[in-house]
Structure formats: C-alpha cells, structure tokens
Amino acid sequence: MRRSQARRRTVIGASAAGVVGAVVLVGGLSAIGASADTRTVAYVCLPSAPATATASPDLTAALSGPASATPSEAVTLTWTNQQPSGADEIITAPTEIATTDRIVIVGDLVVSGPGSSAKKTIQATATGTPDQGIPSGSPVPLPTLTAVITPTATGTVGVKADAFTLKVGPADGTPETWYDCSLSTTAAANTSPASLSIKVSPRTTRTVYETVTAQVSQTPEGGAATGGGADAGPDGRVFILTGSALVLAAAGGGLMLRTRRRAVRH
After folding, report:
1. CA–CA separation, 83 vs 90, rounded Å?
2. Is the whole-model pTM more than 0.85?
3. Phi, psi of 60 (to 5 degrees)
4. How many helices (H) and strands (E) does the chain have?
5. What are residue 130's phi and psi, to 5 degrees?
6. CA separation (Å) from 221 to 3, 4, 6, 48, 225?
7. CA–CA dist 149, 32 (Å, integer)
8. pLDDT, tens digit, for every residue of 39-77?
C-alpha cells in the first residue's frame, strides 16, 4: 500500500502579508555653508634677536570656518595674514631665510560661547618653507594658520583672531622667535580683529519607512510534474476491496447452486 503524502508548508519571514519598519537616519555631516571675515587689522610686532626693528603693519586678516555645526563635531578654523603691498611697516626678515628653513607661526584664537561664561584662548599653528631664498630686509611670507575646536553645547560660538608669534629656524633645529605681534591699542583705525560666529544646533534626524513583504514558499503535493504517471501505481486499497467483492460473489453463487440441486432431488 502506498503511503499517503501529507501537505507540508514552510513560511519564511512574517506571517502577515507585509511588515512596515521605520529606520531612523541621523545626520552627521557638517552644516552646509561657510562663515568668513576679512578685514584690515593694525598690529604691533615687537622684535627679538636677530630682529631689531619694531613693525606696525596693517595686515589683511581673514578668519574662516563653517557657518554652523552640531555638538561634539570637530570644526576646523583657518586664519591668514597678508602683509601690505607698500614698503612701509612690513614684517621683514632680519637675516636671509633659506629654502631649508621653517617659518612657524603660533597664534591665539579667542573662543567664546555657548554661554556668556564660556571663554577661552586656543592656539592655531602654521609651518611653511619658502619656495626660494628670502633675502634680508624682504617681507616674511606668513603661512596660513589652522585650529580645531569641538563645541559641546548648542548655541553660538564666537571666534576672534588675536596675537601671534613669528619664528624662523632650520628644519632640523628649534626655530627662533623673531616677532611677537599683538593687536594695536594706539592705532587710529583698524583695531577690530577678524572674527566669525558659528551656530551650533542639535543633530537633526529623519525617519525613512521601508515596506518588507513576507516571503512564502510551499512544497507541492504528490510527485514532480514531469509529464509521466506516478511511480507507485493505483492505491492498494482498491485491490483489497475488489478481491473482497469477488469472494462474496463466489460464496453467494455457490449457495444458490446448492439450493437448486436440493430442489431437483425432491
């Protein structure tokens, strides 16, 4: 007798027709846009040996950074100082600067906020080498300074460019301080430093909904649909029933023949 086959079904995934899930994406990029302030600023640069002459140049100072940021996000600030084009009151080299020398600037950035009591001074640094030798008495090229701050609270961060120190020395040695430059307090104009503001806002989030359809697979009943008949043939119960019917028919026929014979004798 052929063993009957039971229906088997395997369901993969959720039992419902579909599952809707929510995925929260957190924005971690710096805010688009930049903030910059470029202005002429009067400085007083006091000399240190080998420099001997005080310089009072009006430098073109530029301070730049992102217009906005998020808490705990690193923010890069850039500070440049360009010497005046005239021959007066420039920062000059007291001795020749070779192409193997380093020009180093260490500057102060005054950072305030968020909050009225949050104020500190951080250092911006710059190191450069001249493309060609700079003769004594020529203007000293001032490399671009950079600094990184990391706001920890929301609000507005203010940054101001303040004093800086100019150093020069060989690449394999310690550079010597040539000038200590500070904002002029006696100049008739250009006494406001380069400054900028950075708005620190909470990190924004957005929710994206995704629909996931359940995957269902079903094992078909019976044999594979190959185009031929089944291998096992008819069910064995058909033969049992047919045989039983034939036995009963034969028994009934025998009883009828015996009854007729008895009737003929009498």
Report:
1. 6
2. no
3. -85, 100
4. 1, 14
5. -70, 145
6. 13, 10, 8, 97, 10
7. 18
8. 999 999 999 999 999 999 999 999 999 999 999 999 999
Cα separation of 73 and 71, whole Å? 5
Q: Give the pLDDT confidence score for residue 207 in this predicted structure.
A: 66
d(CA 181, CA 43): 6
CB-neighbour burial class of residue 79 (10 A; exposed 0-12, middle 13-18, buried 19+): buried
Q: Report DSSP letters for 214-240, one per residue.
A: PEEEEPPSSS---SS--SS-S-HHHHH
Cβ partners under 8 Å of residue 85, min gap 6: none
Strands 9-12 and 68-69: unpaired
What are the pLDDT digits (tens) for 125-175? Answer: 999 999 999 999 999 999 999 999 999 889 999 999 999 999 999 989 899
Place of tokens 């310690």: 174
Query: What's the pLDDT band for 85 if we cut at 50, 70, 90?
Result: confident
Which tokens hold the place of 255? Answer: 């009883």
Q: Does residue 83 have a pLDDT over 70?
A: yes
Q: Give strand pairing partners of 109.
A: 122, 161
Which residue type does 246 have? L
The rounded distance, in Å, linking the Cα atoms of 4 and 7 is 10
- Tokens at residue 206, please? 């957005």
